[in-house]
Design a protein that fits this description.
230 residues, 19% helix, 5-stranded mixed sheet, alpha+beta, 21% strand, 6-stranded antiparallel sheet
Length: 230
């Protein structure tokens, strides 16, 4: 990393969109707590979520054991990982930060100087001679006029939408959650069906006095002192 290269974080999604944070320290912490260098107040962000450490080629990101995890370009990271210009950092599922290189503005070139270092100032004597005015000739009678081409006006276009269209976290669907929900619904339905079948079966056996035709159940009922009267 050159001396004139500086990095910054830009909020692409989350609270305060387009907020810019200049990374002007060697060690920077990010989290929901106000004691961090960069505070992001969002439920998906842990109190002390991650840490950025400056190195020779830029910053290295390290997750501090956050609850909802840290993602780089959509992939959940473990341990420490160097960042590249343009990486998208995700804090949980609702906050996205863009890691960008911010170069300083280039200073304007100094004014031209003379051969011995004396600035030259244009004066009356330094102005080039003006060419003599040429007499205007009358237009030729044989000159023909050209028909101007019709102008084609393009329809107005809608102004570009501010912000960035790239969002690697918008493509992540909650398929595991939907699958688990259907599994739970299926288990509940099967349990309800089994309970209803058991109640109906007991009612039918008791109504038709079929206890003595169920050997094992009948033996258990006799051991408990139950006698069926038909």
């Amino acid at each position: 990393m050159q001396a004139n290269e500086r990095f910054r974080l830009v909020v692409r999604r989350g609270p305060q969109p387009n907020q810019v944070y200049d990374l002007n320290k060697d060690i920077i912490t990010i989290g929901r707590d106000i004691t961090n260098d960069i505070t992001i107040n969002d439920p998906e962000v842990s109190r002390h979520h991650l840490r950025l450490t400056r190195g020779a080629g830029g910053f290295t990101l390290e997750d501090l054991g956050s609850t909802n995890g840290t993602f780089i370009n959509g992939a959940r990271m473990t341990g420490a990982k160097p960042l590249n210009n343009g990486d998208m950092i995700g804090l949980g599922e609702t906050v996205t930060l863009g890691y960008e290189l911010a170069r300083p503005a280039v200073a304007s070139a100094p004014p031209a100087e003379a051969e011995y270092g004396v600035p030259t100032a244009p004066g009356p004597a330094a102005r080039p001679p003006q060419p003599a005015a040429q007499p205007q000739q009358p237009p030729s009678p044989f000159a023909y006029s050209q028909t101007p081409e019709p102008q084609v006006f393009a329809p107005p276009q809608a102004p570009p939408t501010p912000g960035y269209d790239y969002d690697p976290y918008a493509a992540r669907e909650e398929e595991p959650r939907n699958t688990m929900r259907w599994v739970l619904i299926g288990c509940a339905g099967i349990s309800l069906l089994c309970c209803c079948g058991t109640v109906v079966g007991i009612f039918l056996v008791d109504s038709l006095c079929l206890w003595n035709r169920l050997p094992i159940i009948w033996n258990i009922l006799e051991a408990l002192g139950y006698s069926a009267t038909c």
